[in-house]
Description:
The protein has helices at 3-10, 28-56, 63-71, 73-82, 90-97, 101-113, 133-145, 154-165, 175-187, 202-210, 215-220, 241-253, 270-280, and strands at 17-18, 21-22, 117-122, 125-130, 167-169, 172-174, 191-194, 197-200, 228-230, 237-239, 257-259, 266-268. The chain is α+β, with helices and mostly antiparallel strands and 282 residues long. The strands form six sheets. Strands 1-2 form a two-stranded antiparallel ribbon. A two-stranded antiparallel ribbon has the order 3-4. It has a two-stranded antiparallel sheet with strand order 5-6.
Amino acid sequence: MSGNAAQALLEPRVGRRIFGRRLDGRSAVAGSRSDASVRAEASVVHAEAVEAATTQMLGDADVASVAALVAEPARAAILDALMDGGAHRAGELARRAGIAPSTASGHLGRLLAGGLVACDVHGRERRYRLASAEAAEALEVLSRLAPSEPIRSLRSATRVEALRAARTCYDHLAGRLGVEVTEALVARATLVLRDGSYDVTEEGAALLMRLGVDVAAARARRRRFAAACLDWSERRPHLAGALGAALADALIGRGWLLPRPHDRALTITAEGRAGLRRELGL
């Protein structure tokens, strides 16, 4: 037996009881009182820890609060106007929603508090935009679920047809044009659909570069790279995500597409028709 082991057997251990007394000189009764005090203190500490953990815990997602924000028609119109991906003054959003500027300010305040809208301040000017791509995605999903509004005027019919033909869905192409461009890229093996997202082939990267798309830069952005977004009007997927945004920026930057004023519809220019026919067969 080693010297340390022998010493451990000979030395009394603190708190060990023999015939009702503790080897440290205290009575067993006193020890039990001390133990009870320790247990009580531990119970209090445990209760405080549980209360703190419960306070920090989050419950289920409060879907009703977000739904209430979107359910008001004027706020829904403001959000629809912001689906063009731009930042707008409160007065412009009030005009688009058909409400007074003071009313629009109240609605924008609620949308800000609810996290659906963000505000960019430049000096004394304030411009409002959607808070995130996730907010835009949620609104697009709601558009697919919502029934179509009745058309009551020629002006309304013209606007709806323009939106269905070509539009932006936040920051990427949508409508018939967005779907046809996506399907042409898939047919040319530029994009491959896997598990709800697209990927770019090596040959496809060259075609996208010809269109002015920096694939590497799009891939480096901190968001989904190339998502498949189900188009609400066509019911077929179009290209979304960072790559979809880069493609839209490239085609608009080339002058192939022109954003229409006061809504998110796009006009295909003569140069754009020729370029889309040459590169994608559209």
